[in-house]
Amino acid sequence: MENGKKKLTLFQLIGISIAFYGSVRSVPTLAVVGWQQIFFMVGAAVLFAIPISLISAELATGWPEEGGSQVWVKEALGEKFGFVTSWLLWVQMFFGMVMVSSTVGVLLGYVIGRPDLSQNNIFVFAIIIISYWTVTLLNLKYDMDKVVGSIGSVVGIYIPFVALVALGLWWSFKHGIVNLGTLNWGTAIPSLSSVNKLSIFSGIIFIFAGLEIASVHANNIENPKKNYPISVFLSMGLLIIFNLIAGLTEANAIPADKIQLSNITQPFEVYFNELGLPWLTNVISAMIAIGVLAQLSAWVLGPSKAMIKVAEDGNLPPVFQKRTKRGVPITFVLIQATVVSLVGVLYVIIPDVNSSFFMILILTTILYCIVYLMIILSGIILKYKRPEVERAFTIPGGNFGMWITAILALSGTVITLIVSLIPPENTNPTMYLAVQIVGTIICVVSPLIIFKLRKPSWKKNSEDNAA
């Protein structure tokens, strides 16, 4: 589609992709498995990230209209499953936003010089409520993209990530191998006898969750047939290298049983204390907190904008179609904030902050995996159902290439779903399984019930629904 917009170069697309995935929040999840993170990260890339990126690019360049995965699934599997896709992407954000909001509480504990508060459930819960409602109300009133956009990314994501990698390398060169142990077959490959450790794979997969969104740029890149797969492999390679350096050096500096999954400031504290500059931990915590709040701000509107389009198609009652004068989907935004507050209660009822964080992370991953299963199936179905649709990027090898790519993606997604139901060590197995199974059933069944009960009168007419 030529619209006069300047095409992205290969290096610009690589930069956009790395910016989208780059975050220090994932590093503790990697660090906790030591050398095995190499196996898990490469496995996640080969069985998940790369094939999903390629399938999404083919679908995005064939059906580029706004709506992304919901449009692809609707085209392949029908309106019901298109609605389920939108619903799950919206609902999983509740859990994702609780998880991200919780890191604000951990960070603020360090900013104010009270690191003990990072493991205080009540404090973390209070900050989840305050931070999320604050960014919600600001988004209702102001255009926060202009306020926090690029500044939040540079201050809160790029600088801390580069600092974490550099400091980790410095600490490890200075002290040598301390907590990581020697690299051999036994330490690098997870043992099937300790299957509960495999549930970590789900958390590592989540590092790549949302990668289908980057595929929207596939239509706007020079020579997409050649450059898009190159950008996928290069950006994935760089992402893996940077995450592994940060994860391995943290695993070397902190014993595995002392790593706090929700505390991304922990390795910085070790490194800055070693440098005799403990006050820099407060500074970096404040910077990361700015980045987290900027990310939260973007998430407040992103999924709700997709959902209001589904609502206007008649899948939800008119009350869900209301917008503010600035076009903000007010009903969805307020529901998000309310549900995030309720999900945040997990931090109060589950005593261990690490367990709460991990349970929410895994539930988010399970919901995303269901969406990815529908995207993969859509890729195969549309290859046969709509072969006449021109795609600027197609997976090499025609139908055979699509099948190979889809089988890899299906393998990774199914493995992730299976291991997600294995309770990790030091977790109440009954509570863990209850959160995952009951949470998934509620999230999947509810859109099917709503779709069944929808009425023709719900479809939006031409009148303005602005609040």
From TrEMBL:
<keyword id="KW-0472">Membrane</keyword>
<dbReference type="Pfam" id="PF13520">
    <property type="entry name" value="AA_permease_2"/>
</dbReference>
<dbReference type="GO" id="GO:0005886">
    <property type="term" value="C:plasma membrane"/>
</dbReference>
<dbReference type="GO" id="GO:0022857">
    <property type="term" value="F:transmembrane transporter activity"/>
</dbReference>
<dbReference type="InterPro" id="IPR002293">
    <property type="entry name" value="AA/rel_permease1"/>
</dbReference>
<protein>
    <submittedName>
        <fullName>Amino acid transporter</fullName>
    </submittedName>
</protein>
<keyword id="KW-0812">Transmembrane</keyword>
<feature type="transmembrane region" description="Helical">
    <location>
        <begin position="81"/>
        <end position="110"/>
    </location>
</feature>
<feature type="transmembrane region" description="Helical">
    <location>
        <begin position="228"/>
        <end position="248"/>
    </location>
</feature>
<feature type="transmembrane region" description="Helical">
    <location>
        <begin position="330"/>
        <end position="350"/>
    </location>
</feature>
<keyword id="KW-1003">Cell membrane</keyword>
<dbReference type="InterPro" id="IPR050367">
    <property type="entry name" value="APC_superfamily"/>
</dbReference>
<feature type="transmembrane region" description="Helical">
    <location>
        <begin position="403"/>
        <end position="423"/>
    </location>
</feature>
<feature type="transmembrane region" description="Helical">
    <location>
        <begin position="356"/>
        <end position="382"/>
    </location>
</feature>
<keyword id="KW-0813">Transport</keyword>
<keyword id="KW-1133">Transmembrane helix</keyword>
<feature type="transmembrane region" description="Helical">
    <location>
        <begin position="36"/>
        <end position="60"/>
    </location>
</feature>
<feature type="transmembrane region" description="Helical">
    <location>
        <begin position="147"/>
        <end position="173"/>
    </location>
</feature>
<feature type="transmembrane region" description="Helical">
    <location>
        <begin position="198"/>
        <end position="216"/>
    </location>
</feature>
<feature type="transmembrane region" description="Helical">
    <location>
        <begin position="122"/>
        <end position="140"/>
    </location>
</feature>
<feature type="transmembrane region" description="Helical">
    <location>
        <begin position="279"/>
        <end position="301"/>
    </location>
</feature>
<feature type="transmembrane region" description="Helical">
    <location>
        <begin position="429"/>
        <end position="451"/>
    </location>
</feature>
